[in-house]
Amino acid sequence: MNRQLSYKKTWLLYLLLLASVFAYYWLCYKTERENFLQVFALFTLLFACCYFIIRYFSISHFNQLMIAGILLRMLLLFAVPNLSDDVYRFIWDGRLAANGINPYSWLPAEVIQLPPITGLTTALYNHLNSQHYYTIYPPVLQGIFWITAKLFPENIYASVVCMKSIILLAEAGNIFLLTRLLQKLQLPKQISLLYMLNPLIIAELTGNVHFDAGMIFFLLLSFLLLLQKNLYVSALFFGISIATKLVPVVFLPLLISKLGWKKGFIYSMITGAVTVILFAAFLDTETIQHFLNSADLFFSHFEFNASFYYIIRWLGELITGFNIIKWAGPLLSAIALVIIFFISFYNRNISMQQFFIKALFIITIWYFFSTTVHPWYVCLPMALSIFTQYKYALVWSYVTTLSYYAYHSTPVKENLPLVAFSYLLVIGYGCLEVRIRNNKLKNTFQQNIS
Fold first, then answer.
1. Which of 3-17, 274-288, 390-404 shows the lowest per-residue confidence on average (mean pLDDT)?
2. Please, what's the largest Cα pairwise distance for the chain?
3. For the chain, what is the mean pLDDT?
């Protein structure tokens, strides 16, 4: 009887994985992002399959599911990104560098006016979503773009597959680092499946070519080395993570607080030196200004799927009659930094598990106060949540797919009630988790003194 039940459960697992394969194929090979209902329905099916797989098979079939996580990513290796067009700017920047042109120095709109340059065609230019903006991608990514362009100077599809292969390697590394960190923290390795099988992470990183995978890899590696007391090498990889995508810099105050002022200063100096050295290969006085201008544009002009910012914008429009993003964006970032410093330096004597809780709260605050939160941004909080008892990032990873509604029309137009609904779910679930944890701590304290 038990054997028959086990046999049926195994077939149920295969059925769920087969449904996932179908949904990933249809989502990443056959669906345009303008078709919101299909995008959201497929994500919903994938999250439902993920839930039942982890709920019923995470312990008995962990190794098989880890392999399945890799195979599902490999399934998307040959799909041209359909939910994001960022990859075309990656290819553009790489081909500029491969032709000896600093990608930070020229606008695409300027380059297209020059005499023909290998690979920089009108067809590629027309795919760009940032024709009049300087690139904002840090030097580690520019190095990857350059390598891809050297290997495939004119073949766009081969360039896409090459970049996806690099992301696939980073994701394999992330899976290893997650299980290793969980082991070090004496937490069940099965928790890592929340990242391994998460549909947002699989579809957005490998499927849509977002190098957050690389940033997460270097960040997790630096945290693992920190846990192993290898501070200098940890600082090296933390600097590389910043030079891959700038976001990890928000964790620097937390690291200083954790290490103490002396070790924290040394850690910061090594991190800063690594970051400066990597940037130095590309930047001069003029291109530094271009890069800073691009960063300023991100904070003071771009807006998408924001939370608190939309409330401030609404109030500002009531008072002034126009969009106040030019002031609200930088102001909210400054407020977020103040809160981040408070979280970092409040109660400095913490364990590594508490360190990860603080890190999760820090990145959550940063994104909640941002003017732009694309779906793939949630991959980082999802990765950090693996090491904590808080799982609101899992809810966030699902409801953020609602933001694809904005692409159902041209030009892009968001449904603000839908955006508000998604954030209310995340905030509500997060508050519920905090309340449950506080009640548990209170009950434990009362039992200890009674």
1. 3-17
2. 82
3. 93
pLDDT given at position 281: 76
Strand partners, 304: 372
**What gap in Å lies between CA 315 and CA 444, rounded to an integer?**
43
Q: How confident is the model at residue 443 (pLDDT cuts 50, 70, 90)?
A: low
Per-residue burial over 149-174, b if 16 or more Cβ lie within 10 Å, else e, is beebbeebeebbbbbbebbbebbebb
Phi, psi dihedrals of residue 304, rounded to the nearest 5°: -165, 130
- Cα first-last separation, the chain: 47
Q: Distances in Å between the alpha carbon of 428 and those of 64, 380, 396?
A: 34, 20, 11
Strand positions, DSSP E, 148-250: none
Taking only the tens place, the pLDDT of each residue in 143-174 is 999 999 999 999 999 999 999 999 999 999 99
Angle at 6 between CA 2 and CA 8, to 5 degrees: 120
Structure tokens at 128: 């760009």
For the chain, how many residues are written? 450
101 burial level (CB within 10 Å; 0-12, 13-18, 19+): middle
Which residues, 6+ apart, have CB-to-CB distance to 404 below 8 Å? 33, 36, 39, 40, 83, 375
**Per-residue pLDDT averaged across 97-119, rounded?**
93
Over residues 193-219, mean pLDDT: 98
Nearest to 177 by CA among 226, 218, 229, 141: 218
* CB 396 within 8 Å of CB 378: yes
pLDDT band at 410 (very low <50, low <70, confident <90, very high): confident
Count CB atoms within 10 A of the CB of residue 121.
16
Q: What are the tokens at 164?
A: 């996806």
Is the pLDDT at 1 greater than 50? The verdict is no
> Tens of pLDDT along 178-205?
999 999 999 999 999 999 999 999 999 9
SS (H, E, C) 209-221: CCCHHHHHHHHHH
Q: Could you tell me if 145 and 211 are in contact, meaning their C-beta atoms sit under 8 angstroms apart?
A: no
Is the preceding omega at residue 411 within 30 degrees of 0, hence cis?
A: yes
- The DSSP string of 64-132 is HHHHHHHHHHHHTTTPPP-S--HHHHHHHHHHHHHTT--TTT--HHHHTTSSP-TT--HHHHHH-S-TT
- The secondary structure of residue 372, as a DSSP letter, is B
The span from the CA of 430 to the CA of 13, in Å, is: 30
pLDDT at residue 318, as a whole number: 87
